Amino acid sequence: MKNFYWIDSFDGYPPTMDHAIRVSVDTYENIYPQFTEALGYRFHLVTLEDLRIECGPTLKVVHDQYGNLLEGEGAAYVGLIHPDLQKERKLETLYRIFAYHSRFALLNFTPSHPMVCKDKFSGTSIAQELGLSVLPTCLLDTGSSLQLDHVAIEHALRRYPLFVRPADLTAGLGKKVLHNVEALQKYLRQPPFPGRLYIVQPFIEIEAEYRVYLSGSNIVACRKRRSLREGESCATPPGIAVGSQALATYLNTTYLCVDWIANGSDFWFCEFETGGGFTELSEPFRSRVASAFFRKLTS
After folding, report:
1. Which of left, alpha, beta for 115 (phi over 0: left; psi -120 to 50: alpha)?
2. Residue 77's closest CA among 173, 3, 169?
3. What is the pTM (predicted TM-score) of this model?
4. What are the start-end ranges of the H helices in 232-279?
5. What is the mean pLDDT of residues 259-273?
6. Hey, how many other C-beta atoms are within 10 angstroms of the C-beta on 2?
7. Does 118 have pLDDT greater than 70?
């Protein structure tokens, strides 16, 4: 049986993430192995802090228990997002090592657009290029002139409130609604995660969020979530279906999740992921999406 390594870091997150991290770890340890082992891969959850990268006569990724992870054939998934920039850079290095290793399949690697899901501004730019419905979006550098930044943002977006978030983080980290110029200036002076870029958009009262799951360019499931309610499987709204398929075709992915927001009358592209989870889905959609997610293991 080949080895499958799920590599990520679960330390260094704010306490608000504790529950989400526990749920994720439980999923990795108790659900994902069922799918990988059925395909001939023994699942290993590996924390970033337990790995060291060595360059000598050969490149090695060493774990005290598993030895050199690069020996033999196998597959991996490497997380790309972490609030600690040093941990994030190490994850990115590991991602590149596994992505371009001849004997490994990296689940969240898209050859034509590597790491594209990390950059939400690039995602929005791609959606706009494809003619999809997107919100006006500014990319914000908190290290530049405060005066220039807030004047440019007000000119481009035209109205408050605004919604700001890091361009490369997830799970609500750093997200904030800004109701006036004073709040914007304060956010610029004291960003929650210094050293990062931020995206700013008009704030929208969201009636529902949709996540579309695709295998290649084929939609295999859609999940709708209303505020303060559990998500539920649903038919994919036609406009959202067309937009999601256009993104999957453009990115040429084996697996893709596309998120949309809607206010009851209109909808807008939000972001996409090449490795979004599926355990919140009910059957038969859960098994269908799992097959798409682990499809690279069968090739």
Report:
1. left
2. 3
3. 0.90
4. 238-251
5. 93
6. 16
7. yes
